[in-house]
Amino acid sequence: MAPTSTIDSNLGQSSQSTKPVQPASSLRTLLLSPPSLSSHPERLDSVLAAHDRSATDIQMLDRLALSLVSLPDSLYDTILLLLDADGTRRESKNLLTKDVLDRMVKALKPGGNIQSQDGSFAVDDESERRAAILAGLLVDGTTVEKPSDHITASVPLRVGKRNDAKASTNAAGTGAVTLNINGKRKNGPTATGRPADVGYVGSDDDLETPSAGHGDSDDELIDEDTLLDEDDIKLNVVQPPSCRPKPGKRRRACKDCTCGLAQKLDAEDSAKRANADENLAKLKADDLAEVDFTVQGKVGSCGNCALGDAFRCDGCPYVGLPAFKPGEEVRLLDDEIQL
Amino acid sequence: MSNGVVSPDRSALVAYGSETGNAVDCSEELGRALERLHFATIVSALDHVPPASLLTSSLSSYSFVLFVTSTTGQGDFPSNAKTFWKSLLRKKLPADYLKDIEFSTFGLGDSSYPQFNWAVRKLHKRLLQLGAAEIYPRGEADEQHEEGLDGSFVPWTTDLRSKLLNRFALPEGVEPIPDDVLLPPKWVLSTQDNLNGEEPDKATKAVEASHDATRLTVTLRMNKRMTPLSHWQDVRHLDFVGQSTSVSYDPGDMLTIYPENSTSDVQQLIDCMHWHEVAKNLVSLHPTEPWRLSAGETPPLQGFLHPITFRELLTRHLDLNAIPRRSFFSLLAHFTTDSFQKDRLIEFTKPEYLDELYDYTTRPRRSILEVLQEFDSVKIPWQCAANVLPELRGRQFSIASGGHSKRDGSNVRFEILVAIVKYKTVIKKIREGVCTRYLAELKPGSQINVSLQKGGLGVTQAEAWRPVILVGPGTGVAPMRSLIWERLQWSLTLSSKVDNRQGGNGRHSSLVGNSILVYGCRNQAADFFYRDEWRSIQDKMPLSVYTAFSRDQSSKIYVQDIVHQQGAEIARLVLSEGAIVYVCGSSGKMPAAVRGALSGVFEQYGGLTHGDAETYLARMEKEGRYKQETWG
Question: Which segment of this protein is annotated as the motif Cx2C motif 2 (chain A) (predicted)?
């Protein structure tokens, strides 16, 4: 990768607003200091000296752990974990709870990274590596990055007042999006936001005429996943008492049956079919491929054989055959029935 | 109003979200039940009733609203309810937004899916949050119930009816309309001659236009069998082109094909119903009461353009091969005078005969046409055909083309991979899928109407850098092929840009992440689709293809086994390089088995505990890094 060259591949959309690429000097850094360092201001100063003070914030890790401070969302390119006063991470590691890590990830820009001063974060310690993965970070060797695109979902494709409809349609239809190819994981548009439908134009913020799921970007909607709590999900079936399954009744196979019931039912059905075919074959032998239903004794005593499956008895040899009129010829030809 | 006793304060809305038509059917049945209680009832797709219209409808205000919806995908709303749902989720809606609405909800689901009836549960919660009042407890139908959806729907409706009669008592001397009285049809067909020179009104035209705008005419260029003739399964690769410079699509999107009934099926129905006279006449569909359209009632047929002949209507718009639903039998009972057949039809509609109905219809996959041929005394008036026969719905197929193969000059191009559906039941005649039979017989040069649907994979070029794990056995490879061609195009586009800037120093491979295709089928020789394409693509971008041929060795191997075999690489790509996992193909065991395999791989090679691996997968789903699209 050539870290300094940036390419705007915004295909022919020069008027579309593109986020300016920040010069390297303005990369924002957050330093997280363990409490032990507060009694050694000279160390803190020496660390600070290596950073552009105007683009660097510092917070105490213990205050963060106690939720005494809150971090801004998606601001930092790097979060640097400072070493304890004794040059280790013993103290600070204990403060790095799941909650703290989650909040650090939130404060990172997409594509931003977390490091410790000694480069050991999520590298040496297996449980720390797991915690980083579970916090949604991509851990690859010694780099620990926030994925580049899952937070920025609503930004580039947003059909807002600023972007005209044409720009949004293009972005959706042709894949003309802003890309930053210099670093493979820099800000890119939406992974989770779906592109607008082809030909969709315009949006409407009006309460009275909501638009077809495009004008509202996700951040203006409540998260529907939060609507159902554990109880709602566990809840199996709301059934009126009268239709609770009764014992002894036949079960049906699921659409995606994996327990074998479907095969069993299929086997029953093909046995039924085979049995009926066998009986038909007997008739065929008797009557030289012609069955005359006007002749007494050729139909069951129920007299319903000719009427179709809706009226036939269980085990009727004509099951699965079309209805026919008494007196009509039924020819049995090579497994095909013709009336 | 049709029944003469309705006052404006006695009106109801039944609003549905439906993917396959079950919720429409339930809603129509609810609508009829409410009409019998003298409620002027509008039955409408949820997307036709924006939330604001619940507040200020043209019927002043509804006495109550019944919401009926199935659940699709991962606990999602059906496509004709998504817009409504999204607008109901807006944060800016005040907590008393729906305070004047009284409602009940009914859900259709399948308890073999983990997100059983989530759509209706979410809707129920959100309606309450927005201040609406529930007048009757939610009902949930389960496909797995021994009596199917009706097992819950019938008792729920019966009880609702008596609750409503208490709550909204009928005036002295007015009785509910009994079941054996046929309600006047809401929509009727008429021939052009009967129009008295009247043009279809503007509202009717508008409805048609909106439905038709999404259709595109395409020409079939190739219909190629992908499996050897000796193989039991017939799988086709179809290649369509259509004139359009504006239409475009993304990997994962679906093409909807509108099938036609076979000439012989249509003729058999005409013979059976004695519709010979009218078959060649031009017909159009009209509401019997014009206020229904302005009130938002959804017409029974969509995409129906005037004028077409009655025979065309039967061929293209009405489903003769659908499995008849219970309400179909109750309608038929009105159209026969033969008491023997009428009694049997009515029996099939009774709750205690649901088992018999199932054995007669769903289990052997008996078609409407076959039922009508057995109940030969039934003569449906042609004017009512569109009310009695269900709409012939389009069927969706995942698009298999992507990248440069999406266009051909000024044409848009679609390729699909279709397994032709044929199977046997206890009925002697072989069952065939309506749409796949139609496609199998389609000749190159044929022009057909299609439309495009957004799929759920949400693929964007922004994620080009990410590696992808594509698990797509069988015809599930179609969207994967689309994505692979798309990524190849991204790769070429991005490299040429880098070349322009940097004088072509050729570090292209890292611009687009690795693609890992995990493919499974029965035999390498029979159904390893697109094998030669993969080879040619591998020269141009990083693509690995791992295969499971389940029947090519004594022990069966499936895609989930391949996930285990390639576990180290897959775990690394997902955990360290932010790979996206796509799982496409037939629903059933495969998706769960693949998910389980991934979880195992994260444990084994990523060092996660079982619980952490599951948490990680759940997080991937939430972030859109685990995407699944399966079909039954």
Answer: 313-316
* Amino acid, res. B435: C
Nearest to B526 by CA among B267, B184, B234, B278: B234
pLDDT per position as a tens digit, B103-153:
999 999 987 777 889 999 999 999 999 999 999 999 999 887 777 788 889
Flag whether residue B145 sits within 8 Å of chain A, measured between CB atoms: yes
Residue B388: exposure state from Cβ atoms within 10 A (0-12, 13-18, ≥19): buried
Query: Which own/partner contact pairs does B199-205 have at CB distance under 8 Å and 24+ positions apart?
Result: B200/B284, B200/B286, B200/B306, B201/B290, B201/B293, B203/B290, B203/B293, B203/B294, B204/B286, B204/B287, B204/B293
- Name which of B125, B344, B454 is nearest A197 (Cβ-Cβ): B454
A155 has a pLDDT exceeding 70: no
Nearest to A228 among B85, B118, B370 (CB): B118
Q: What integer best gives the mean pLDDT of chain A? A: 65
Q: With respect to CATH, is domain B11-167 assigned 3.40.50.360? A: yes
pLDDT, average across residues B160-189:
92
Nearest to B584 by CA among B475, B488, B487, B447: B475
**Boundaries of domain holding A189:** 153-224
Q: Does residue A250 register a pLDDT over 80?
A: no
d(CA B302, CA B215): 11
pLDDT at A199 (0 to 100)? 28
Segment B191-214 shows an average pLDDT of 52
Determine phi and psi for B63, rounding to 5 degrees.
-65, -40
**Average pLDDT of the segment spanning A119-137:** 87
In the predicted model, is pLDDT for residue A216 greater than 70? no
Nearest to B248 among A5, A173, A243 (CB): A173
Topology of domain B187-388, CATH? NADPH-cytochrome p450 Reductase; Chain A, domain 3 (1.20.990)
Buried b (16+ CB within 10 A) or exposed e, B198-237: eeeeeebeebbeebeebbbebebbebeebbeeeeebbbbb
pTM of the model: 0.75
Tokens coding B177: 């309309």
CATH 1.20.990.10 residue ranges in chain B? 187-388
Residue range B61-91, pLDDT digits in tens: 788 999 999 998 778 999 899 999 999 999 8
Degrees to nearest 5, angle at CA A141 with A137 and A147? 25
The more confident residue out of A249 and A229 is A229
CB contact B277 to A (< 8 Å): no
CB contact under 8 A, B428 and A258: no
Tokens linked to A324 = 């026919």
Cα angle for residues B395, B401, B402 (degrees, 5° grid): 125
Residue A208, chain B, CB below 8 Å: the answer is yes
For residue A218, pLDDT beyond 70: no
Q: What is the mean pLDDT of chain B?
A: 88
Model ipTM?
0.74
Contacts of B625 in chain A (CB under 8 A): 150, 191
| Closest alpha carbon to A330 in A299, A304, A300, A301 | A299
- Return the residue of B nearest to A196 by Cα: B454
Of residues B147, B497, B624, nearest to A181 (C-beta): B497
A313 is in an annotated binding site: yes
Q: Do A189 and B462 touch (CB under 8 A)?
A: yes
In a domain, A240, yes or no: no
Residue A57, classed as helix, strand or coil, is: strand
Q: Which residue is associated with the tokens 């009285």?
A: B181
Task: Judge whether B529 and B477 are in contact, CB under 8 Å.
Answer: yes
The arrangement of secondary structure in B461-631, i.e. its CATH architecture, is 3-Layer(aba) Sandwich (3.40)
With a CB-CB cutoff of 8 Å, which residues 264-323 of chain A face chain B?
265, 269-270, 272-273, 276, 307-311, 319-323
* Nearest CA among B48, B160, B57, B165 for reference residue B103: B160
Beta partners for residue B72, in sequence order: B76
